[in-house]
C-alpha cells in the first residue's frame, strides 16, 4: 500500500494507529462498497436502468449481477483485497463492526437465494450453506486472479455466476 502511494511503510502509521486499524479500514471500504450495490445491480448499470431496481427482477438475474459485482469489487475496484479474508487478524474492537457488515451482506445473498427457492427458480437447498459456498468461492478469487491474465474480473465474475447458477451439468439434448 505504501509503495503504491509513493511513501514509506512508516508513513502509513501517521494515518492508521496500527496494522489492525489498516486491515480494518481495507475491509470496511470493501464491505461498504459491496453494501452500497443494490442487490443484483451491475456495477456498470445506472440505478434507473437496473433490472434489480424493478419489482419484476428475477432472483436469478439479481443474484447473477450481485455475483459479478462481488468479483469485480474484490479484484478491480479494490485490487489486492486479500485483507478482506483476514478477519481473524483484526482485534475485537475493530472486528465487531466488520462482522456486522459481513453478516448484513451475507443476509442479502441469503434472501436472494431464498426468494429463488420460494419462486421455484432455484432448487430447494440450505440457503445459508449456499450463501457460504458462493462467498467462499468468490472471496478466494483474490488469491489467484491475475489482472494481466486472459480474463477480466468481470469475465471471471460472469463465468462464476453461470457456473453457480447453472452448474456444470450439460443441458439435456432435445
The unreliable regions are: 40-55
Strand pairing plus helix content: what structural class?
Answer: mainly alpha
Mean pLDDT: 83
> Helical segment tally?
7
Distance between the termini: 54 Å
Characterise this structure:
The protein is mainly α. It has helices at 2-5, 9-15, 19-36, 59-77, 92-119, 127-144, 153-166. Helix 4 runs parallel beside helix 6. The model is unreliable at 40-55 (pLDDT under 50).
In short:
62% of the residues lie in helices and 0% in strands. With 174 residues, the chain is mostly helical.
Secondary-structure topology with pairs:
Elements: H1 2-5, H2 9-15, H3 19-36, H4 59-77, H5 92-119, H6 127-144, H7 153-166
Helix pairs in contact: 3-5, 4-5, 4-6, 4-7, 5-6
Amino acid at each position: 500500500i505504501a509503495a503504491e502511494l509513493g511513501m514509506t511503510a512508516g508513513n502509513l502509521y501517521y494515518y492508521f494507529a496500527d496494522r489492525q486499524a489498516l486491515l480494518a479500514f481495507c475491509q470496511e471500504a470493501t464491505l461498504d462498497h459491496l453494501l452500497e450495490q443494490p442487490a443484483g445491480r451491475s456495477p456498470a448499470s445506472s440505478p434507473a436502468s437496473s433490472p434489480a431496481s424493478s419489482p419484476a427482477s428475477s432472483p436469478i438475474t439479481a443474484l447473477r449481477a450481485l455475483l459479478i459485482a462481488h468479483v469485480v469489487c474484490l479484484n478491480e475496484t479494490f485490487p489486492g483485497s486479500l485483507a478482506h479474508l483476514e478477519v481473524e487478524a483484526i482485534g475485537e474492537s475493530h472486528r465487531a463492526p466488520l462482522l456486522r457488515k459481513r453478516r448484513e451482506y451475507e443476509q442479502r445473498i441469503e434472501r436472494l437465494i431464498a426468494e429463488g427457492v420460494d419462486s421455484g427458480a432455484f432448487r430447494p437447498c440450505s440457503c445459508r450453506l449456499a450463501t457460504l459456498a458462493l462467498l467462499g468461492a468468490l472471496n478466494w478469487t483474490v488469491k489467484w486472479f491475475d489482472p494481466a491474465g486472459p480474463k477480466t474480473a468481470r469475465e471471471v465474475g460472469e463465468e462464476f455466476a453461470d457456473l453457480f447458477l447453472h452448474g456444470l451439468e450439460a443441458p439435456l439434448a432435445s
